[in-house]
Design goal:
This protein is mainly α. It is about 70% helix and about 0% strand.
């Protein structure tokens, strides 16, 4: 059972850019592209599920191998346009980008394994809780949070437990699969944090290519070492078995549609849309992804408790996301009382 393309906010952070007039009059096509990008990301779950016979580590490696290839030309062009000082700084950031790639690799490895062991809807929901997990970490470290973030985190905990309990009624759901998807959401936090730091000055492709490429490398080595993949074998057991095989179309779809049309478009749209306008529609990924999976026939309708727990969990994600943005905006404006 294969599920979500990534955490719902794989590359978007709420305060990646400042408020500004450029977000007040977005061109009409930006909203069309945003809608297409959300649907594109949501459809990845069904694409993964269609290649169920491929071992999880191998499939995760395939997805990032081709994505890295597609990002490479843009990285070369953007790097050549950088000022010499920034080119040096980009090279000196290599270790940070490797760490980001390792975080992304862990995320994909855990997530794709998890989606083999739980339902489509559960995996899509649990992989979307990164904002709640970040807020939980801030609470543990005694960092200031807004009232909305505290309430949202509490609601999210209730929704998550309700969702886990609903698995008792669904045969394809397992706690270990749910847990793997939750840990995948934790694993991606380092990727988001490093990206937030480096993307403040580094062009998109200059950052995305080495991170994605290193993640693909980590996963490829892991697939050979632990996943039973072979360097020379074709098809499902080969580290590059998607080339010249029946899996080619599926891997190309994952790399081009959810990868480029989806996540790359989100980053491009930050020039025209407010980050919150991008983050909130992304919370619909579990809903849209579940509908797509049901229509295509790769999943069955969830149990009623899943609807209840999922609705509570998504409401909590929205509350934490909006409250977190409002707190960060006030902090930037120098307002101490939230």
């Amino acid at each position: 059972m294969r599920q979500s393309e990534n955490s719902t906010i794989e590359e978007i952070t709420l305060n990646e850019i400042e408020d500004g007039d450029r977000h007040t009059r977005a061109p009409w096509w930006a909203w069309v592209l945003l809608a297409a990008a959300v649907v594109a990301v949501s459809s990845a779950a069904t694409a993964f599920r269609s290649m169920e016979e491929v071992p999880p580590l191998t499939l995760a490696a395939w997805r990032l191998q081709l994505t890295a290839m597609l990002l490479f030309p843009g990285a070369v062009i953007q790097y050549r346009k950088l000022a010499p000082a920034l080119q040096v700084e980009a090279l000196q950031s290599g270790l940070l980008m490797l760490a980001s790639g390792l975080s992304l690799a862990f995320h994909f490895a855990l997530w794709v394994w998890g989606i083999d062991h739980t339902s489509l809807t559960h995996a899509l929901l649990y992989v979307s809780i990164t904002p709640i997990l970040i807020t939980t970490g801030m609470w543990v470290m005694n960092k200031p949070l807004s009232r909305g973030e505290n309430i949202g985190t509490g609601i999210g905990a209730f929704g998550g437990l309700s969702l886990a309990f609903s698995g008792v009624k669904e045969g394809e759901v397992t706690l270990v699969g749910d847990l793997a998807c939750v840990i995948a959401s934790v694993a991606v936090i380092a990727y988001l944090s490093i990206g937030r730091h480096l993307r403040a000055w580094m062009p998109l492709f200059v950052y995305a290519f080495p991170v994605t490429g290193s993640a693909a490398g980590f996963l490829t080595v892991s697939a050979v070492s632990f996943g039973g993949a072979s360097v020379t074998s074709p098809g499902a057991t080969g580290v590059a078995g998607w080339i010249m095989s029946k899996y080619l179309v599926g891997v190309v779809y994952l790399a081009v549609i959810p990868g480029i049309l989806g996540h790359t478009s989100f980053n491009a749209l930050l020039k025209y849309l407010h980050p919150l306008a991008i983050a909130l529609p992304l919370t619909l990924e579990p809903v849209i992804g579940s509908i797509i999976g049901y229509l295509v026939g790769v999943t069955s309708p969830p149990h009623m408790l899943t609807y209840v727990g999922g609705a509570v969990l998504l409401a909590a994600v929205v509350l934490v996301t909006v409250s977190g943005y409002q707190r960060e905006r006030k902090e930037r404006e120098g307002i101490s009382n939230i």
